[in-house]
Amino acid sequence: MAIQDPISDLLTRIRNAQQAKHQSVLVPDAKVKRAIVKVLIHEGFIVDSQPETVENHKFMRIFLKYHEGVGVIDMIKRVSRPGLRIYRGKDELPKVRSGLGCAIVSTAKGIMTDAKARAIGHGGEVLFIVA
After folding, report:
1. In this structure, are residues 7 and 37 in contact, taking their beta carbons and an 8 Å threshold?
2. pTM of the full predicted structure?
């Protein structure tokens, strides 16, 4: 079965694994997913990731982050989706929970947070928000 929206699949797997208190989650590997995970690691929402191969298929194991037994990711929500793309200019990028969270944006310079996109003066597609 083919996955229609791989980014939503990634977010759902992370959300479900964290609610179930798993230490890690296995997701199919893709270039865009690696870029998203790299941003989440840099922002401190997850610990690390490493590549894995299972039966000749490439996967990525994502290690989730907890603080005093509670998941660091309180909310992770898809904004732009295949049926309705959401694009915003640099001045219109959303601020999540007054700066406590972040929006992940796909720009011409790559996938980055809303704050970094504002700093370099780029807008783009708002992929999802996380707090």
Report:
1. no
2. 0.94
Provide the b/e sequence for 108-118 (b: ≥16 CB within 10 Å). eeebbbbebbb
How many CA atoms, within 13 angstroms, populate the side-chain half-sphere of residue 126?
24
Residue type, 64: L
Q: What is the pLDDT of residues 7-20, one digit of tens each?
A: 999 999 999 999 99
Number of other residues whose CB lies within 10 A of the CB of residue 129: 19
pLDDT (tens digit per residue) in 54-95: 999 999 999 999 999 999 999 999 999 999 999 999 999 999
How many whole angstroms from its chain centre is CA 94?
A: 15
